[in-house]
């Protein structure tokens, strides 16, 4: 019996393409994690840094990670913000800036949507960082 070398996840895509998308996904996550505090971080900048096109990076994020650039950036920023808020007494404005937000109000809005509580409430009652 001859087995197909096609990936079960991407049945119509060559194995080398699947591997390349996995590599792009991994590299993109590394760049996002390293540069999450840059308020100007964009899909185009990450794609340029890992030497691919924006469209190829979008495909890798969608197909390998079932996510998008903006969702992944937000997830990483909110995870880091939760750690900073839990670890100390930095002002919310400082935490917002550290994770890439220019406006504390915008940061607070996104934080509340992501974690279900305001940054100040989160600091008073730290929760599991699994959110």
Keywords:
mainly alpha; disordered N terminus; 64% helix
Description:
By secondary structure, the protein is an all-alpha fold. The protein is built from 7 helices and no strands.
Strand content: under 5%
Head-to-tail CA distance between termini: 46 Å
Helicity level, as a percent range? 55-70%
Shape: elongated
Number of helices: 7
Global mean pLDDT: 88
**Low-pLDDT residue spans:** 1-7
Structural class determined from secondary elements: mainly alpha
Say how many strands there are. 0
Topology:
Elements: H1 15-35, H2 43-49, H3 54-65, H4 69-87, H5 92-98, H6 104-115, H7 119-124
Helix pairs in contact: 1-3, 2-3, 4-6
Quick description:
The protein is an all-alpha fold.
